[in-house]
Amino acid sequence: MVFGQLVVGPPGSGKTTYCNGMSQFLKLIGRKVAVVNLDPANDALPYECAVNIEDLIKLSDVMVEHSLGPNGGLIYCMDYLEKNIDWLESKLEPLLNDHYLLFDFPGQVELFFLHSNAKNIINKLIKKLNLRLTVVHLVDAHLCSDPGKYVSALILSLSTMLHLALPHINVLSKIDLIESYGKLAFNLEYYTDVQDLSYLMYHLDQDPRAAKYRKLTKGLNDVIEDHGIVNFTTLDIQDKESVGNLVKLIDKSNGYIFSGIESSAVEFSKIAAGPTDWDYYRYPLLFSILYTAI
């Protein structure tokens, strides 16, 4: 049984940065980590890549050969990967004995709530390779400063959760920059817990452009609240405990923590037993890149 994370989210939400920082953190607590890049447009990887889709297909080549734009090209690449899933399985098989997997996916959100190719790829890998995966859905924290964009992020998160039908954790990325976006209408817990969304309607009514869509927005809010499954977690890059807490949450969701409770306890004790400045000074790179702007 192999465990890992499927990292998804809109362009610019910090997926590649997250994979880089998370892989470093997991290595520090004793796990062997393999990062799998499944974004054919990601040609400048900051992390050591164990499997790279560009060895199979490149977005730039597809766009030229088939006269497609970036969105159509990405869909083509995912279709091609699905048809050649044996290639990916063969690349992953040597890693299955002792590695924890991080899958870095493209930022085209349609792939995860509208089209079926990415879902089919994931399901085939889970079934064939006996994977236990959690979807980590990154959302840029600056969306909290705009009620309309925040509602859009909630709808995207809900749609992705329902479409992929896997253990799912929504994360507000770049949380360290949230103060630079201006004062929030409500405290941060309102946005992470997704409380009574009717309070957002007053702020939306102040914007003439948003007021005319009031009925639509209210309908979307009702859909979100009726499902009652969307919330967010955050990460403070200056607090080593918050990084560990996110990993614990992921481990609990996909079962890693139950499959090796003793080993997990040893891993996290390496953090808890360390002095306050253990990671800030010895490993400054990790906390300078994790959840910061790309």
UniProtKB/TrEMBL annotation:
Record's keyword annotation contains Hydrolase: yes
Protein origin, superkingdom: Eukaryota
InterPro entries: Gpn, Gpn2, P-loop_NTPase
Keywords associated with the record: GTP-binding, Hydrolase, Nucleotide-binding
Gene Ontology CC terms: cytoplasm
Molecular function per GO: GTP binding; GTPase activity
Signal peptide region: none
Family statement: Belongs to the GPN-loop GTPase family.
Functional note: Small GTPase required for proper localization of RNA polymerase II and III (RNAPII and RNAPIII). May act at an RNAP assembly step prior to nuclear import.
Quaternary structure (record): Binds to RNA polymerase II (RNAPII).
Protein name (database record): GPN-loop GTPase 2
Source organism (scientific name): Aristolochia fimbriata (White veined hardy Dutchman's pipe vine)
